[in-house]
Write a structure and sequence with these properties.
alpha+beta; two-stranded antiparallel sheet; two-stranded antiparallel ribbon; about 90 residues; elongated; 2 helices; Alpha-Beta Plaits
Length: about 90
């Protein structure tokens, strides 16, 4: 196996070459609970979007929408929501 070394940071790829784009890695298969947004409670503050560690919350029509292909069910969005609009529910497969 050939060892790859970089002489300076600018030579490094933006992410590991072997992974390619994370958009092809649907990472939600092991999730046992998932967040659901109660839009009648949601103030559209986007705090859930800001704190999501997997960037699995998209914004459509000025409101947060969970992309379940990438959501791992960590619950951070639910904990951080100031309006308690995000509820964690059991994942049904």
């Amino acid at each position: 196996m050939k060892r790859i070394t970089f002489k300076k940071e600018s030579e490094m790829p933006s992410m590991p070459v072997t992974l390619g784009s994370m958009r092809v890695n649907h990472t939600s298969s092991w999730r046992s609970i998932k967040p659901e947004i109660a839009y009648e409670k949601c103030s559209k503050c986007m705090i859930c979007w800001k704190y999501c560690p997997d960037a699995s919350i998209d914004i459509f029509d000025d409101r947060p929408v969970i992309n379940y292909d990438y959501c791992k069910g960590c619950g951070i969005c639910s904990v951080e929501c100031p309006k308690n609009a995000v509820e964690m529910v059991v994942e049904e497969k």
